[in-house]
Specification:
The chain is of the alpha/beta class. It contains 14 helices and 14 strands. α2 packs antiparallel against α11. The radius of gyration is 21 Å and the shape is globular. The N and C termini lie far apart (about 50 Å). It binds pyridoxal-5'-phosphate. Pyridoxal-5'-phosphate binds next to α5. Homodimer. GO terms for molecular function: 8-amino-7-oxononanoate synthase activity. Its cofactor is pyridoxal 5'-phosphate.
Length: about 375
């Protein structure tokens, strides 16, 4: 029979407690979600700044629909690039102080679209070991050489770079790592890139909106990062993504990135709503301050035997290790009205299944204390 391996592999997933299933969420409101007629406190959302359902963003979306329509109706190189996209690109350039920006339909497609466009024989990619799947797939998609360095281990990266054999080198890292919540040392990476005549590419999916006084992410730490990508699907609370870079790379991507060329442009109404969200992010510093304050409270409220990876982001990873154990803890928390998805391999390395807690600006102190109290009970 054809494709017998499908059923075999699914059975194996079940056996190893790695079987993935979706849950249909009826509604997400503030820090709560509703599923199967039950209400839960949500600690798995990437809406870090609590902007989903913000009335001004909702209004901008409706305005965008009436002005430009829901669909862009074609790819950007045909007639899909509209005034709404142009405004958003300019806002992003000004915010991040970068010459050019280019919009994509998702972060996955932006990462894949950039790396596959650069993946020729004369290129080598140097990726942090914990890079997102889209970065790995993009890097491996073409003829470029690919080397992964140990997570945040810049000594190893430098040693490897000393032996580089190709002229075009791109160092790739995340600003804040998605599953660990820890941060790259942006200044160290930029220095290394400069010293070895490499470019630095940062995936700021989990930094944008959170890091920096106006939420600019990694460029607030070092303005000389060559290329920045971020998705709008996390703190920005819409969808789509952008790449910020210089003019030459911008034009190169428009000409050679297959994801950009052969895909319908993102919805102009969403671009319009995203522009409003970026305005709010820049001025609502209280949202970033609240995440920091609640994160401190969370760390203080956990039992001493529970270890969390240090971070200034919204993501707080508690490593449990075993798949089954992390699923059991997540189930116990669910019974207490807490939604906290257990993260298992292959999303994270073997033996590092974990609880990935996201603290958002729409949580309050009581929510955090309730979470910590129940994690303390569920883990010991
Ligand atoms: C680090 C990182 N990069 C890229 C992406 C992909 O972004 P998107 O969800 O917009 O495809 C994600 C998450 O989904 C992510 O965590």
């Amino acid at each position: 029979m054809a494709f017998e391996y499908l059923a075999e592999q699914l059975a194996q997933q079940k056996l190893t407690h790695r079987f993935r299933q979706r849950q249909c969420i009826a509604k997400q409101q503030e820090a709560n979600l509703f599923c199967n007629d039950k209400e839960y406190l949500n600690f798995s959302s990437n809406d870090y700044l609590g902007l989903n359902q913000h009335p001004d963003i909702n209004h901008a979306l409706q305005e965008g629909v009436s002005k430009f329509g829901v669909s862009s109706c074609s790819s950007s190189l045909v007639t899909g690039f509209s005034y709404a996209h142009n405004v958003l690109e300019n806002t992003l350039c000004e915010w991040l102080n970068k010459p050019k920006c280019l919009l994509f339909n998702s972060g996955f497609s932006a990462n894949h679209g950039l790396l596959s466009a650069l993946a020729c024989e004369q290129t080598q990619f140097w990726l942090d070991k914990l890079s997102h799947a889209s970065l790995i797939d993009g890097a491996l998609s073409g003829k470029a050489k690919v080397k992964r360095f140990l997570h945040n281990n810049y000594q190893q990266l430098e040693q490897l770079l000393l032996k580089k054999s190709l002229a075009n080198n791109l160092i790739v890292s995340e600003g804040v790592f998605s599953m660990d919540g820890d941060q790259a040392d942006i200044n160290a990476l930029q220095k290394i890139a400069q010293k070895h005549q490499a470019w630095l590419y940062l995936d700021d999916a989990h930094s944008l909106g959170i890091i920096g006084e106006k939420g600019q992410g990694s460029v607030s730490i070092n303005p000389h990062v060559d290329i920045v990508m971020a998705t709008f699907g996390k703190a920005v609370a819409t969808s789509g993504a952008f790449i910020a870079c210089d003019e030459t790379l911008h034009d190169y991507l428009i000409n050679f990135s297959r994801h950009y060329i052969y895909s319908t442009a993102m919805s102009p109404a969403i671009a319009w709503a995203t522009n409003k969200s970026v305005e709010i992010i820049q001025k609502d510093n209280w949202r970033r301050e609240k995440i920091a304050e609640l994160s401190r409270l969370f760390a203080k409220s956990l039992n001493d035997n529970i270890e969390m990876i240090p971070t200034s982001s919204s993501i707080h990873a508690i490593i449990v290790g075993d798949e089954k154990k992390s699923l059991d803890i997540a189930e116990k928390l669910k019974a207490k009205g807490i939604w906290l998805t257990a993260i298992r391999p292959p999303t994270v390395p073997n033996g590092t299944s974990r609880l990935r807690v996201t603290i958002c600006a729409n949580h309050n102190k009581q929510d955090i204390k309730y979470l910590a109290e129940n994690i303390n009970k569920a883990i010991n």
